[in-house]
Amino acid sequence: MKMKSAIESLPKVELHYHLDGGLRPFTVRALASEAGIALPEQEEQLLWMLRVTDHCASLFEYLEKFQLPAALLQTAANLERVAYEAVEDAAKGNVKYIEIRFAPQLHVEQGLTLAETVSAVLTGMRAGEQATGTIARLILICLRNHSIELNWQVLEQASAFYGQGVVGMDLAGDEAGFPPELHQAVFEEAHRRGIPITIHAGEAAGAENIRTSIACLHASRIGHGVRLEQDPALVEVVREQRIALEMCLTSNIQTKASPSWDAHPVRRYYDQDLTVTVNTDNATVSNTTLNMEYERLMHYHDFRIDELKRMNANAIEVCFAEEEVKRKLMREFFANPDQEHKDTE
What we know:
By secondary structure, the chain is α/β, with parallel strands linked by helices. The chain has one domain (2-333): Metal-dependent hydrolases (TIM Barrel, Alpha-Beta Barrel), CATH 3.20.20.140. The protein has helices spanning 2-9, 25-35, 43-50, 59-63, 67-72, 76-92, 114-132, 148-161, 184-192, 207-215, 232-240, 249-254, 266-271, 290-301, 305-318, 323-333; strands spanning 12-18, 95-102, 135-143, 166-172, 197-201, 221-224, 244-247, 275-278. An 8-stranded parallel beta sheet has the order 1-2-3-4-5-6-7-8, with helices on both faces. Strand 6 (221-224), helix 11 (232-240) and strand 7 (244-247) form a beta-alpha-beta unit. Helix 6 (76-92) runs parallel beside helix 7 and helix 8 (148-161) packs parallel to helix 9. The longest helix is centred in the middle third of the chain and has 19 residues, at 114-132.
């Protein structure tokens, strides 16, 4: 109980949170009812549609759980609602800063423009920020299986909303089938425009995708990066350049990026002085919270509270927020830097 209490009281930063992977089951029922979409009456059956278990076979099976949320998030009102709730849920876990990401191109099937999808999510996030005090920023996702033209449109939205709540861009989706170099032109232009970049890599494919994401797509952060240690020379590059790893322990087990809890490389990476951060990835799909991720890190990899605090310092350092926000977070998190939590019971 002391460990759980220490984790809950710890202020936190979340850098890797997918909007459509974190819908509340109650909200799913409400939105489906409004849209005339029939859902199973049994709660267990609904949760089966939204969540995976440790028996999930692959990233492909994991991504199937996004089909129902995608069908529901086709209106501005729905996007605004779930964005608000994402910030509210983060605040309940004592998350003080969160970067939410979503793919605008997945939400235009019923007539919304890309700009309208981004605006709706930002409106919900701002309302959540005002209600809770948790600071929220937005990352726009390009999809690997989309054309350069479609992803270029996302880049234009990132440019238009940059500095108005949008803080970066991402590339996500079927990593094994669509290597990062296919989208190099889009991310080179994003870099030229000064938009920070994080890339999903080393999750469903090897370390070569991490290398390409850094060298060719200008990634300063890597989503997951589990397979980084396949390339010892690249480990040195990541350490020297302070490329941050957005690690998501539970998700990585479920997608089979790591074969087991004990085998996950998060402790090895941390001990090698890599810039490791801790995240949920998809709170509903993975049935987790940031507090639960911290508990599992302590249980399976013997992390101490002071080490978790250091990972939050890492997250503040590499987040895409404005410098004044970073300074505010540092003051809030480390107002008394000599006072460290040592209780790891």
